[in-house]
Design brief:
Layout lengths: L1 H32 L2 H12 E6 L6 E2 L5 E13 L7 H12 L3 H8 L6 E2 L9 H10 L4 E10 L7 H4 L11 H5 L1 H4 L4 E6 L12 E3 L6 E4 L3 H18 L3 E7 L6 E7 L12 H4 L3 H4 L9 H11 L8 E4 L2 E4 L2 E4 L7 E4 H6 L3 H11 L1 H10 L26 H8 L8 H12 L4 E2 L4 E5 L6 E4 L4 E3 L4 H17 L13 E11 L2 E15 L6 E8 L8 H19 L20 E3 L8 H7 L4 E6 L4 E5 L5 E3 L3 E6 L1
Parallel strand pairs: 2-8, 23-26
Antiparallel strand pairs: 1-6, 2-3, 3-4, 3-5, 6-7, 8-16, 9-10, 9-21, 11-14, 12-13, 15-18, 16-17, 19-20, 20-21, 22-25, 24-26
Helix pairs in contact: 3-4, 3-5, 9-19, 12-14, 12-15, 12-18, 14-16
Length: 634
């Protein structure tokens, strides 16, 4: 009995030992096979160190590859406290070179950490400062590559591009909106150290940083420079409170140029107030659009067939009474009896009140919503506003009347140019966008391309054709004459919007605008100009903004290579205007006959004979009165 109990205990102890041994074997197997990588990483972290190398931010280029935002190579100061033998001496010399406080620098070089980045005084150092630090030759003091964002055009396109902080993080504009694409992957120099932080004589490992993605914009820098120049001229000439110009491809929604004043230098954004650097007026500013909004009312009435441009008439006596409120025409005494086309040409407010009444509040507001007003356009930029519209259920006769000619509601310039684009491009409403594609930084190969996004059809193609005709007539015969360009078909509409402050309209304080496009029969570019309260000039959009738009469109003709046209509407000239005459065809005429036909021009002959065999410029184009016409005789 006694021995059996002993044997049982021995067997129990033996079984326990076997179980423990098996558990140890399983644990060792688990550590060696399953936990090896984790434990090895933890062990390595105790003696491995990394000196970070910042990646370059992705470049931003225009549609033709011109660099708009790039990087400058600088260096930053990093210290490894465990490797510094004499902290007081190192701190004193570094503080002297960086012109900073000794105690602050001593705190950096004695900090209980493996690696310390000296921030901000040690960031983005100049070559001279970096050389002085390097010449000290201290162990534990490192200068590491760092990139600094650089905008070669400085103030040009500043609100669109935005700016970045000291750590190269996007803070506004495209830099913020596409920060995840533009930010690269940092690299490092890896080495091993002992417990005190001293570098061991083992091989260093270099991990190359990866630059961010290149953004290729829809912006045409040549056109951008043209509108920036026109804005500068307008600011100098009229001293307005602010101003903006933008251009778009009406067939796609691609933004070709965008600028506003006041602007700032993206390289030195710290010198400007938040009110300047964070307000991209074309997408942020909201105001009553005035008469440029009449295009929307016109298109809705034409689509609903409530008016006929050529047959219907309206008598303008200078004012119209709406539910006890008097709405005046800009022309004292009015325009008399007009066709609806003339109502558009003359930008007659009472006439548009009549057009609005043919639609009614519910129908007009339905078209306004179809055109995308009252909500963001979805452009790929931060800070977009929505504007303000009347609630259709609270609209009375007066609200309907004022909405018909662009008063009492507020819109953004981007909403306005997008809606008018739809009115003239065949009736297609697109989402505006400013980034064309994403490119790999080193090979420039395509990663992704943005395509035009069609989101609606407010009107039909036939209605759009009528709108284009009416707006071409505005420039040829109406309030937009100052935007007329000989030999090119230009359409457009003026706007003179009274500003509101504290719920009341200001006297003599207007936002003067013009929206124009060409060619009028098949638009390739649309331009919107708005100048806020210009000084020392008659405050009409046709006087201030139309000539600016004409200059921009004239530049676009060359930049976009838009050919001239022999078709289109002839302008009616006054005695104040520089007159243009249509050049007759004199090829095949005799010298005497040609001279008679070219009355009003100077004629220059070359060659021999009596018959004209070639002429320059060609016939049927317009040329200034007194222009020299060259004829070749043979």
């Amino acid at each position: 009995m006694f021995f059996s109990e002993i044997h049982a205990r021995i067997r129990f102890v033996f079984l326990v030992c076997i179980i423990i041994l098996i558990s140890i074997i399983i644990k060792v197997f688990y550590i060696q096979v399953f936990s090896y990588q984790k434990l090895n990483t933890l062990a390595e972290s105790l003696w491995s160190r990394e000196l970070p190398i910042k990646a370059d931010r992705g470049e931003i280029v225009d549609r033709n590859g011109k660099v708009l935002a790039s990087n400058l190579t600088t260096v930053s100061l990093v210290v490894v406290p465990g490797q510094i033998a004499n902290p007081e001496e190192v701190a004193e010399n570094l503080a002297r070179i960086l012109n900073t406080d000794y105690k602050d620098m001593l705190a950096h070089v004695t900090k209980s950490t493996s690696i310390e980045r000296v921030h901000p005084e040690g960031r983005q150092l100049s070559y001279d400062v970096a050389e002085k630090i390097n010449n000290l030759g201290y162990d534990g003091v490192y200068l590491l590559k760092e990139s600094k964002r650089y905008y070669p055009y400085e103030t040009i396109l500043s609100h669109v591009l935005g700016y970045v902080g000291i750590d190269n993080q996007g803070l506004s504009g495209l830099e913020l909106y596409y920060d995840d694409y533009l930010t690269g992957a940092d690299g490092a120099i890896k080495y091993f150290s002992d417990g005190k932080g001293n570098k061991l004589k083992l091989t260093e490992v270099y991990e190359k940083p990866t630059s961010g993605v290149t953004l290729k914009l829809t912006i045409d820098m040549d056109l951008q420079l043209a509108i920036e120049n026109e804005l500068d001229n307008a600011m100098s000439k009229y001293n307005p409170e602010q101003g903006l110009i933008m251009a778009m491809n009406p067939k796609t929604g691609e933004i070709l140029a965008m600028a506003s004043r006041p602007n700032f230098n993206s390289n030195e954004y710290q010198k400007y107030s938040n009110e300047i650097i964070n307000r991209n007026l074309p997408i942020w500013m909201t105001y009553e659009p005035g008469s440029t909004f009449k295009i929307i009312t016109l298109s809705a009435a034409l689509e609903e067939k409530t008016i006929n441009l050529f047959k219907d008439t309206f008598h303008d006596g200078g004012a119209i009474n709406v539910d006890g409120a008097t709405i005046h025409c800009w022309k004292a005494g009015g325009h008399g009896t007009q066709t609806m086309l003339q109502v558009v040409e003359n930008s007659c407010n009472p006439g548009f009140v009549s057009i609005g009444n043919t639609l009614g509040a519910e129908k007009l507001m339905s078209y306004i919503h179809k055109y995308g007003f009252g909500k963001k356009t979805g452009v790929d930029l931060n800070g977009e506003s929505t504007g303000i519209l009347f609630d259709v259920n609270k609209m009375g006769p007066v609200e309907l009347a004022t909405t018909s000619f662009g008063q009492g509601i507020s819109v953004t310039p981007l909403q306005q140019i997008r809606a008018v684009s739809a009115a003239i491009n065949g009736g297609n409403l697109y989402t505006p966008y400013i980034v064309d594609s994403f490119l790999e930084s080193e090979t420039n190969s395509l990663i992704k391309k943005n395509e035009p996004e069609l989101i609606g059809h407010p009107i039909s193609a036939d209605t759009s054709s009528l709108v284009r005709y009416a707006l071409e007539s505005v420039v040829a015969n109406g309030s937009g004459k100052n935007a007329y360009i000989e030999n090119y078909r230009v359409g457009g509409k003026t706007g003179t919007a009274q500003k509101v402050q504290d719920g009341k309209y200001l006297d003599g304080n207007y936002i003067l605008s013009f929206i124009g496009f060409l060619p009028a029969n098949d638009p390739e570019i649309i331009v919107y100009v708005a100048i806020d309260n210009p000084k020392g000039v008659t405050q009409y959009g046709g006087v201030v903004s139309a000539p600016i738009a004409k200059s921009v469109l004239t530049s676009a003709i060359e930049i976009l290579d838009i050919p001239p046209s022999k078709e289109g509407m002839a302008r009616e000239y006054t005695w104040l205007d520089k007159k243009y005459l249509k050049i007759p065809n004199v090829v095949g005429l005799t010298k005497k006959e040609a001279t008679t036909a070219l009355k009003g021009f100077k004629v220059e002959y070359s060659g021999t004979g009596e018959e004209v065999i070639y002429q320059s410029p060609a016939s049927d184009y317009y040329a200034p009165e007194g222009e020299t016409i060259k004829l070749l005789l043979g």
